[in-house]
Amino acid sequence: MNIFRSKKQKAFLEKERLENALKHLYDYESKNGASTIDSLAGALGVSRRAALTIEESLENSKLISVVGENIYMTHEGRSYALKIIRIHRLWESYLADKTGVAQDMWHAEAEAREHLISEEEADHLASRLGNPLYDPDGDPIPDKNGNVPPRKGILLKDAKENSYARITHIEDEPVDVYNQIIAEKVYPGMTIRIVENINHKTAFIADGEELVFTRLLSSNITVEEIDASMADPLELSTLDKLDKGYECDIHKISKLLRGQQRRRLMDLGFVPGSRVRFEMSSAGGDPIAYRVRGAVAALRIEQAKLIFVKNVRKAG
Q1: CATH T-level fold of 154-230
Q2: What is the pLDDT of residues 2-13, one digit of tens each?
Q3: Gyration radius of the chain's alpha carbons
Q4: CA distance 77 to 34
Q5: Burial of 88 by CB count in 10 Å (0-12 exposed, 13-18 middle, 19+ buried)?
Q6: Where are the alpha helices (DSSP H) in 170-224?
């Protein structure tokens, strides 16, 4: 029994390693052209000797062809890679919309799950999610036939000054750069105004705050230019700043509130257009109770900070 388990585990680890290699080859090919043994070894964190063994397995399976130092994916290899990428991005969508898993864990958790389900199970997962075209970071999700929705926009570092844009994609690798971006509460779907884009820095206004990103950060964000009329107001307030005796209208709920938290807020009536009035705060000031649609609901300050409001006025 132990021997059987050992063989089964070894086969799974081999499958996982080959699928990770195919994902790298597809990504590298899409951005840079043909890959090499050195790029494969670096991406997988293995020795050159181990990378040569992986290359040999992929070539024997007719998933790649090797010409000199260059590694090229075959049609079969590219199709296989797209299936794994599809499953990965579906898992990220599931984790974002159906669970409470933190945003900085979506990618790693999806990588752990992407090798575990079949194509049929992936189809079921896609159906359950409503067959999304893009994952929560804005990456296109291939369909079951390998068709990939188009990427739209330009890098933020190349955006024009004094223009308005919508963020369409945030690159989730390398992880440390991604974590710096999301720590600033920047997300796909956010509308921004580019103030300056010079001296290797990009200054922009997002959700009422001015942010300054280095060239490294702005090179990992894709934006699509929009008309000023489609952008959020430059000055936005958040629900946590509403004082006693005042009311307001909800402008939007940040897309950083996802999954179960977002559904709970919407069920309570915190939706765009709803009138909200400050009701009372706890002794420690957190949570705060608000009256919305005839009922009283308590929110943590961290949640209230992600609800943007307008038309702040004295309660009637």
Answers
A1: SH3 type barrels. (2.30.30)
A2: 655 677 788 888
A3: 23
A4: 13
A5: buried
A6: 175-183, 215-218
